[in-house]
Amino acid sequence: YLLALIALSPAFYLYSVQKNYSQPDFAPVLVAAQLFNEGHREVIYDHEPYSATRPAEWIEKERELPNGSYDTGYPYTPLYLLPFALLVYLFSYEQCIALMFLMNILVTMHLSVRLSVNLSRSFWMRTSLITLMCVANATTAPIFLGQHLPLNLLCMVGFTLSALQNRVWPALLWFVLAAASKPWSILLIGIPFLRRDFRLTGMLIVALLAFMGLQYLWQPEMTRGYIELTQKHARLTVLAYNNFSLSAGLQRLSMPNWPQ
């Protein structure tokens, strides 16, 4: 962990001098959390993906951001919004941004260490893997863009390792957390299915249905809005904007610039 912290130490300096970090990718999540706390829950999913069509309540909150409007919305599950609702209740916008930055740093540290420990027993190989993962652009870019990707990757890695080690309950927990943060994480069901572990496959399907059912019982209108918005995202034809459709992801792999 000390090595990972040293490798990521330049990120702290860059964070202190990078002015545009005040408008990261998870800014819409904080806007949605504020609307949730104020009782405007019916408008959180009432928008078109990547367009200027958003409710007046949403636009009003966007204008309070340091850099103004961000022209996007909240595409995640209702339950995923709960910790952020608590965060914006306790802290200011700037403090929330700093806390999210630190969370991404800590998650990246843990992820790099956990992967290196599971991939090699050699001290030097582990050292090389940790250093490489902590300085690679694919690792640092989500941190500075303020994305949820580090947390989602942690859930996916946790699920994969738990499934391969036949640890059922940790696998179920990691799967539900991954599905809460990214809709396409449900494709993780394919891992035990391809291993012919039909017991775990069935339990994952039941866990997913229970997860969605609990959300519907808690917030039926928000859950319907989430499903409708997910379908809108899946129908997007611009690949750069489509993070929900499997067909769009397969199309991207056929493009020469797919790593971008």
- How many DSSP-defined strands? 0
Helix content: 55-70%
Query: Number of helical segments?
Result: 13
Give the biggest beta sheet. Answer: none
End-to-end Cα distance, whole Å, is 29 Å
Low-confidence stretches: none
Mean pLDDT level: 78
Structure class: mainly alpha
Radius of gyration: 19 Å
Strand content: under 5%
The coarse silhouette is globular
Order of helices and strands: HHHHHHHHHHHHH
Question: Could you characterize the architecture of this molecule?
Answer:
With 260 residues, this protein is mainly α. The chain has helices spanning 2-17, 27-37, 56-62, 82-90, 93-119, 123-135, 137-145, 149-164, 168-181, 190-194, 198-218, 220-234, 246-253. Helix 2 crosses helix 4 (82-90) and helix 11 packs across helix 12. 31% of the residues are buried.
Helices and strands, with pairings:
Blueprint: H1 2-17, H2 27-37, H3 56-62, H4 82-90, H5 93-119, H6 123-135, H7 137-145, H8 149-164, H9 168-181, H10 190-194, H11 198-218, H12 220-234, H13 246-253
List keywords for this structure.
mainly alpha; single chain; 260 residues; 66% helix
Structure described in brief:
The protein has 13 helices and no strands. With 260 residues, the chain is mostly helical. The two termini are 29 Å apart.
